[in-house]
């Protein structure tokens, strides 16, 4: 029976040296090999994802082009909406108070009725005093000092920025309140002499001092999100008691308090955005420095 002659390339398969590589279709993917000058497929078709079509980021690496949608953008959108809503409401209230509109007449009737409530005068006086400069400003100063000490202790490169931003927000209170009082020149409730009661300076002082102190402390609360939410609710209740004490004791009309909440609530929204943009998380590295924070002793 005649045997089929074996190819010479397969003769001597029992040799001791390893088989030599032979050019063929298997090396069509490797650049630089004869017959294939490009890293394309061996059948001549382009790859599924050509490199020339890929988008790169700012550093030239393959990826998505920033900004990537996410929670920071959503936070900025909510802040913008809140800022616009507060400023629009403040403009409406100011227009009604300055123009002696129907909302101002309703406000005065409600303010007179609020003075007839059965809350003890001493309790209402205590609530109103929480908005004084001698109480609210030292609270903010103490919290700002503590936050600055903690941030510097953990190695934050911009440890001074959050306390400075809160201090500037507190300094903006008289710069905004005094001109508005002189411009609108609203008379006070019965028993209060003079004019210039809108917006309420005590309400503004309490809102900025306690609100800024809360914003500074939130990153340092090691508890859960529930703890932070409770602190925010406590700040809101504290400001509500200050406003009620001022109206109950006859120091201000209700719209004086509400106007201050709107205007300086907008200021706190701006402060919150500044702290998120330029502040550093405790114990974390700064995005601009590129170096890790020093561990706390």
UniProtKB/TrEMBL annotation:
The keyword Ribosomal protein does not apply. Keywords: Membrane, Transmembrane, Transmembrane helix. Residues 1-74 are annotated as: Disordered. The keyword Membrane applies. Residues 176-276 form the Phosphatidic acid phosphatase type 2/haloperoxidase domain. It comes from the Bacteria. The chain crosses the membrane at residues 80-98, 130-149, 161-184, 196-219, 231-251, 257-275. This is Phosphatase PAP2 family protein.
């Amino acid at each position: 029976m005649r045997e089929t002659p074996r190819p010479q390339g397969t003769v001597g398969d029992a040799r001791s040296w390893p088989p030599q590589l032979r050019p063929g279709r298997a090396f069509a993917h490797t650049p630089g090999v004869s017959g294939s000058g490009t890293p394309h497929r061996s059948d001549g078709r382009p790859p599924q994802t050509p490199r020339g079509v890929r988008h790169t980021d700012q550093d030239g690496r393959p990826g998505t082009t920033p900004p990537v949608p996410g929670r920071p953008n959503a936070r900025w959108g909510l802040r913008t909406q809140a800022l616009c809503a507060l400023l629009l409401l403040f403009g409406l209230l100011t227009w009604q108070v300055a123009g002696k509109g129907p909302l101002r007449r309703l406000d005065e009737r409600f303010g007179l009725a609020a003075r007839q409530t059965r809350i003890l005068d001493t309790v209402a006086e205590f609530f109103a005093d929480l908005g004084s400069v001698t109480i609210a400003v030292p609270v903010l100063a103490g919290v700002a000092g503590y936050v600055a000490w903690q941030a510097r202790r953990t190695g934050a490169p911009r440890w001074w920025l959050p306390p400075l931003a809160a201090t500037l927000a507190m300094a903006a209170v008289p710069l905004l309140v005094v001109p508005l009082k002189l411009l609108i020149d609203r008379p006070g409730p019965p028993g209060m002499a003079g004019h210039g009661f809108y917006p309420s300076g005590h309400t503004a002082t309490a809102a900025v001092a306690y609100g800024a102190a809360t914003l500074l402390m939130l990153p340092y609360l090691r508890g859960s999100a529930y703890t932070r939410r409770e602190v925010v609710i406590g700040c809101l209740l504290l400001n509500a008691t200050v406003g009620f004490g001022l109206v109950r004791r006859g120091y201000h009309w209700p719209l004086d308090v509400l106007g201050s909440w709107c205007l300086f609530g907008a200021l706190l929204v701006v402060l919150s955005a500044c702290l998120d943009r330029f502040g550093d998380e405790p114990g974390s590295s700064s995005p601009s420095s590129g170096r890790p924070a020093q561990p706390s002793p």
